[in-house]
Specification:
Elements: E1 2-9, E2 15-22, H1 26-35, H2 40-49, H3 53-67, E3 68-71, E4 78-79, H4 82-89, H5 92-103, H6 105-115
Antiparallel strand pairs: 1-2, 2-3, 3-4
Length: 131
């Protein structure tokens, strides 16, 4: 899990810095593998190497939204739902994070590693680059 502080201007013109939480558990990662016929990593590497900006942008949006959730105060639950994702996507915080990740390879790598379960965070992401 990663806590990512985002500074944004809300729709009332207020500048806000807020912490947001992102995480993918092992079951969610496996589901992504199944959806890509067991080749999600290869799919990501292919679109990165081909510099397919449109698909890469869509995948970053998917990673952000699929990993976003609300952590319970006691840390036992990490709630995700369509309503929670839609609420986050409708904020300027989402737009700020999206632009930050697609324009900065180091931050994108930190984000991707951070959303993984702790025992998978040592995965080599050196071949991943961003636009």
């Amino acid at each position: 899990m990663i806590k990512w502080p985002i500074t944004y201007v809300d729709y009332n013109g207020n500048t806000i810095t807020e912490d947001f939480y992102f995480h993918l558990n092992k079951a969610e990662l496996m589901h992504m593998q199944f959806a890509a016929n067991g080749a999600y990593t290869e799919f990501i590497n292919r679109i990165v190497n081909q510099r397919d900006v449109k698909i890469l942008g869509q995948e970053f949006e998917n990673l952000i939204l699929n990993s976003y959730g609300e952590k319970s105060d006691d840390g036992r639950n990490f709630r995700k739902s369509d309503a929670i994702r839609d609420n986050f996507k409708s904020t300027e915080a989402f737009a700020e994070l999206y632009m930050e990740l697609i324009s900065d390879a180091e931050k994108a790598t930190k984000f991707v590693k951070g959303i993984l379960p702790k025992d998978l965070q040592d995965v080599d992401t050196s071949s991943i680059s961003v636009v």
